[in-house]
Amino acid sequence: MSRTLAIFGWIAFFCGIGLYVLDILWFLDVLVPVFTIGGLSLLAIAMFLSFSEQKKSR
Fold it and tell me: What angle do CA 16, 19, 24 make, to 5 degrees?
């Protein structure tokens, strides 16, 4: 589960950065912080889930 969550986090983060870079999509600038901060939050949650999965496997 943590791996899929991390993948979605990376995708969301890079979508946010992509929207920030592309000036053509200026009307979607509201979504830039949502995608970037949300993606980083998903990555942090995936990291903590992977630590708990590693402890269970030992």
Answer: 175
